[in-house]
Amino acid sequence: MRILVVEDDVNLNRQLADALKEVGYVVDQAFDGEEGHFLGDTEPYDAVILDIGLPELDGISVVEKWRGNGKVMPVLMLTARDRWSDKVAGIDAGADDYVAKPFHVEEVLARVRALIRRAAGHASSEIACGPVRLDTKASKATVNGIALKLTSHEFRLLSYLMHHMGEVVSRTELIEHMYDQDFDRDSNTIEVFVGRLRKKIGVELIETVRGLGYRMQAPTDDH
């Protein structure tokens, strides 16, 4: 899962980025509205954390431009504590949720998890596919109740496939959502990670759709 943090306070931006990376997200950072708008317009994100008071272009304008261009990624807006009008303006502009400053980073992480889950149609913090369970809150996965030992890249791959269960996900899409913008996108590492993940899961849940990509779904009774 790939997150964009747009916050001009360098320390807060770093604090949020570090916390997100620690629980397995890939993070791109922007420090003003123009840069943030450009990244959100040109790169695919699973969620965006967007400060309302940004230099160059304010957060309200950024989210309005994204929505006007058809960008649908969930946006969590950071607002001033006592400015209820900012919260209303942010939601009306197209933000999906807000957190007022000062905040606990854990609350931001919980809201980001919820936004990503809801965008993929999942209400619970646990997502199941056959015997595999993904705990989005704890960033852990199990098979038949036994914890899976996954590398950070394997976990990102499993998480993305499970959030998009039943959908064919292309190799390009996986690369775009598993790595930041500086990653070498001609690499064949996705195939390697899929192979490793299949071995660790031990059940046939990840199907290769020839020429299109991969699909994760639980086997049906007639399989």
TrEMBL record:
Domain called Response regulatory: residue spans: 2-116
DNA-binding span(s): 124-218
SUPFAM superfamilies: C-terminal effector domain of the bipartite response regulators (SSF46894), CheY-like (SSF52172)
Residues that bear 4-aspartylphosphate: 51
UniProt-listed InterPro entries: CheY-like_superfamily (IPR011006), OmpR/PhoB-type_DNA-bd (IPR001867), Sig_transdc_resp-reg_C-effctor (IPR016032), Sig_transdc_resp-reg_receiver (IPR001789), WalR-like (IPR039420), WH-like_DNA-bd_sf (IPR036388)
Superkingdom of origin organism: Bacteria
PANTHER family: REGULATOR OF RPOS, RESPONSE REGULATOR PROTEIN CARR
Protein name: Two-component system OmpR family response regulator
Species for this entry: Neorhizobium huautlense
Species lineage: Bacteria, Pseudomonadati, Pseudomonadota, Alphaproteobacteria, Hyphomicrobiales
